[in-house]
Amino acid sequence: MATPGWNQTQSPFHPGELAVQSRLGFQAQVDQQGRRMIRTYLTEQHRQFFAQLSYIVVGSLDQASRPWTSLLIGQPGFLSTPDVHTLQVTASYLAGDPLSQNVRPGCDIGFLGIDLSTRRRNRLNGKVTDIRAEGFTVQVQQSFGNCPQYIQSRALQGNTRYPLKENLEENLEENVEESVEESADKSTHALSTLSPAATALITSADTFFITTAYQSRSAGLASGVDVSHRGGKPGFIKVEDNRTLTVPDFSGNKHFNTFGNLELNPRAGLLFIDFTDCHLLYLTGSATVIWNGPAVEAFEGAERLLQFQLERGYWANGSLPLRWSTPTFSPYLANTGIW
Predict the structure, then answer these.
(1) Residue 96 to residues 71, 281, 320: CA-CA distances in angstroms?
(2) Separation of alpha carbons 237 and 206, rounded Å
(3) How confident is the model over 178-230, as pLDDT tens digits?
(4) pTM as predicted
(5) How far apart are CA 159 and CA 94, in angstroms?
(6) Distance of CA 1 to the CA centre of its chain
(7) 309: Cβ–Cβ under 8 A, 6 or more apart, which residues?
(8) Contacts (Cβ under 8 Å, ≥6 apart) of 193
(9) What tens digit of pLDDT does each residue of 43-88 get?
């Protein structure tokens, strides 16, 4: 039996998303699609999916409204849904992750539940309602599934080590930048430009995650945070210089959540995962869209390009407590290129 879709009169998309959909000629089509797919609650299928996960990608904003993309990790069950409108998180933050400073009561937050082994993914956007000693609670505002395009399949392997259940309220009182500077083992490094190690990780990556935020007081609508997956062949990300990246955007679901946010708020946060040596690279900065032109036409499969300008970042050395197999590349990459 089908579950009801969008149950409100206004569009499930905000003005930035609508503007991009209209510019590209998809608005009517995507409005119907969105009203079927997007819900203000979690379906039973999605509740079961989140309960099975041992990791989730999280998008958040810091005190200066800069977006960051993070990971939360725990044994299956660390994400629970006491009802269809609530997600409870029971986990500790990874060392050096900016998320530890960004989770506050009332803040916007975005989640991407993704199982790399099956290429399944579901989105959840909402607001933090309270913080507990062992985690925090989120009120669901939007929930919907995403297709498996461009996801490289990776299976979790043994020897997984989960973060200790430290007190999250104590973590909130620590300053990430101070902890970076005072770290005795220098396991986390602050960045203002891309280091050689960061550049090497980016140019060899086949996967990254991007967080953007909808913030437009003039529209009179609620703000929100989205986090999305991006995938391609190794070499699909170009490092222009030590602060600038260029990434192709391939055909997707035409919701344009990321690009709709950038239409109103040109900030983005990126997360790169070193699946081999377990490093994490967190970047935040500004982003612009190259909608057409020779550079777009020259990249096989690209419909537009995203250019990211680094403002600040962190390299967390060996902080990822999960191990994955080598990837099986998505068949959707067959008609896409590299720089």
Answers:
(1) 11, 10, 11
(2) 8
(3) 333 333 345 899 999 999 999 999 999 999 999 999 975 554 555 899 999 99
(4) 0.91
(5) 17
(6) 31
(7) 243, 244, 285, 286, 287, 288
(8) 242, 243, 310
(9) 999 999 999 999 999 999 999 999 999 999 999 999 999 999 999 9
